[in-house]
Amino acid sequence: MKRIDEALPGVVRVVPARFGDSRGYFSEVFKDAWFRENVADVSFVQDNESLSATVGTVRGLHFQLAPFAQGKLVRCIAGALFDVAVDIRVGSPTYGKWVGVTLSAENGEQLWVPPGFAHGFATLAPNTVISYKVTAPYSAAHDRGLLWNDADVGIDWPLAGDGAILSDKDKVQPTLADLPHSFDYQA
């Protein structure tokens, strides 16, 4: 496995090695000891998976408040997606900044999104399946979001025109300027 630090401190791309031949490939996609030593010393408590049937489906930007704040290790197991993390830690030198990477079944890469970041993605292929490990269980009472297309954040989504397909919930999330104080930056 290889670690690639992204532009936002704490957000890390994990690239598992693949060993292939004419039959296909083998890859260790998660190793607890390696992850704890090289990325974050955390425990994962739940694995989630979702299917987005249509290209241009946007899910997010989501996060959960403490004590259910989640770190997420995200990978794409079918299709392709543009995965995004936005720093929402008040006082952070990168507050309101974002990073995005393309995750696909083909490249096998993963993205670690620590607590204190809003997370979302846009699908780039039909029938895209995302699978992610989380460090805290889902809690509806602690579930929050950030508007996916907030101009002040300025995410450069790879979507054609007005092609985003959103849930009703994601259409009305607050902008960064209206986001209640949710996380503090810890230097």
TrEMBL record:
Judging by the UniProt lineage, the source's domain of life is Bacteria
Q: What does this protein do?
A: Catalyzes the epimerization of the C3' and C5'positions of dTDP-6-deoxy-D-xylo-4-hexulose, forming dTDP-6-deoxy-L-lyxo-4-hexulose.
Family, per the entry? Belongs to the dTDP-4-dehydrorhamnose 3,5-epimerase family.
Q: Which UniProt keywords apply?
A: Isomerase
Taxonomy-wise, where does this protein's organism fall, top ranks first?
A: Bacteria, Pseudomonadati, Pseudomonadota, Alphaproteobacteria, Hyphomicrobiales
Catalytic activity, reaction form = dTDP-4-dehydro-6-deoxy-alpha-D-glucose = dTDP-4-dehydro-beta-L-rhamnose
Q: Could you tell me what this protein is called?
A: dTDP-4-dehydrorhamnose 3,5-epimerase
Q: Is Phosphoprotein found in the keyword set? A: no
The record's annotation in PANTHER family points to: DTDP-6-DEOXY-D-GLUCOSE-3,5 EPIMERASE (PTHR21047), THYMIDINE DIPHOSPHO-4-KETO-RHAMNOSE 3,5-EPIMERASE (PTHR21047:SF2)
UniProt cross-references to NCBIfam families, sorted A to Z: rmlC
- Look up keyword Isomerase and say if it applies: yes
The pathway where this protein functions is: Carbohydrate biosynthesis; dTDP-L-rhamnose biosynthesis
Question: Broadest EC class?
Answer: isomerase
User: EC number(s) in its UniProt entry?
Assistant: 5.1.3.13
Assembly behavior: Homodimer.
